[in-house]
Amino acid sequence: MKSLTWNQVNAWRLAQHSLSPRSKREALVAVASYLYGLHAQVMSAAELALGARTDGLTPQDVQNALWEERTLVKTWAMRGTLHLLAAEDLPLHAAARTIDPRRWIDFESRGISEQQAKAFLEAVPEILSSEPMTREQLADAVAEQVGLPVLGELIRSRWGTALKPSAFRGDLCFGPNQGNNVTFVNPGKWLSKWEPAEPEAAFSEIARRFLHAYGPMTPKQFARWWNEGNVTLAKAVFKQIEDELEPVDVEGWQALALKSTTEQMQESAVSGIVRLLPMFDAYVLDIARIGEPVLPKQYRKRVFRQQGWTTAVVVVDGIIRGVWNHKTNGGNTTINVEMFEPPTEHVREGIAAETVRLGEFLHSEITLAYASIQ
After folding, report:
1. CATH of domain 197-267
2. Domain map (residue ranges) of the chain
3. Residue 20, pLDDT score
């Protein structure tokens, strides 16, 4: 078992979430694929997460990748929440989901039989095409085809719970909004190509990516990231790739890491890197929950708030040292930073540099303000 320090692990992890040297177009796909998705319940947060890792990016670049170039796709993915995925990864995701499908909705309790639920799932890809269809249009078409009005009522629900099974199957993803209305398309027709994947191989590949971007981790943490549970399934997929893994001890905490990364972890060192990461950032959602080594417990409630909200954070050498928010008024944006402890001059310089990048991303004049430390 290899021994690592938290300084080494944190330095390695933060390096994996740093800026991409590729062109904007390549970087968008590479970042989304490497991190295996960006949380997109709040779309602006997903745009900022990409902007934090890609130089010269703008929100319009992300919109173009989604709706014009179609190299990114918006859909319900990990934990049943909205994510941006690389379009080329959607067949991989759909294949892996067949191993752990989880419907997210109890059709029977809604008066829908198993046969009717099956008819509903089969109807969705038949009805959807490459032309965007609003929620109302889809609801009416499905209810008519299946002959069950209650299905239309379920689809009209703004939470989209009834549509998550179709998204997991790869039969549905989001299209561009029509005014205030969301739309849906059939990914097999919307995207330029669809290459089916073998389920077990797909799930193994996803586990590899998880460990590379967020590791070392345990099967329990992978299970939470993937579907909020089913540790048995997580242990099984880790077993499938066990020849590629090795146990590590990080100052008494034991987990698994890819063999291909442990030597690089041991050579990693903190170097004063300061980053401003947005709400719901992947680094925070899937690493900071480890606890003390990344986020001191006395500040946990400042980051992980009620109703599932995750605050934007200041990260210094992989450790969360503060929180921030921004407000834009016209062409001016105020960034408010609240550090947990008095920042050094080096950290202040790093935050200032990050705000310059944020201003370029938002195409806005920036005012940086520090809140008093409590």
Report:
1. 1.10.10.10
2. 197-267, 274-370
3. 67
